[in-house]
Amino acid sequence: MPNENDANASEGAEASADDAELERLQAELAASIRRRLLFWAIRWTLGFAAIAAAVQWRPGLSWLWWVGAIVAFISLLTLLSLHVLSRRRLELARRRLAQSRDAESSDSGELPP
User: Fold this and answer.
1) CA torsion sign, 90 to 88 to 97 to 16?
2) Cα distances (Å, whole numbers) of residue 24 to 12, 16, 27, 54
3) How far apart are CA 64 and CA 53, in angstroms?
């Protein structure tokens, strides 16, 4: 028959696992933004090289520089916005987890750690 100490140990292990999972997600998010920025830079380097070739071939296409710059800026803004949104959602999950732990500890009459 499990006792109260076993239940508390189990809850502590779950809390540690949740914290570890959030830390893992945060590390993956940081690595993800680095990788995405690298691919963005490579993609737009190739894109602007293609624009340069098109303008060299047809000088009347010089307006492509502006279109390329606008599209590159919008794609970078989107990339960074999604990263900020993901970080906020991760922080919200962290706060909700802490709140649920506080609520559980106050319901059981224990003092929070």
Assistant:
1) positive
2) 18, 12, 5, 44
3) 11
Backbone φ, ψ for residue 62 (5° rounding)? -65, -20
Q: Do the beta carbons of residue 46 and residue 68 sit within 8 Å?
A: no
Own/partner contacts of 17-25, CB < 8 Å, gap of 24 or more, are: 18/97, 19/97, 22/90, 22/93, 22/94, 22/97, 25/90
Q: What digits encode the pLDDT tens for the residues 45-69?
A: 999 999 999 999 999 999 999 999 9
| Cα gap 77→17, rounded to integer Å | 34
Whole-angstrom Cα distance, residue 26 to residue 21?
Answer: 9
pTM value is 0.68
Q: Give, in degrees to the nearest 5, the angle at Cα 33 between 99 and 97.
A: 10
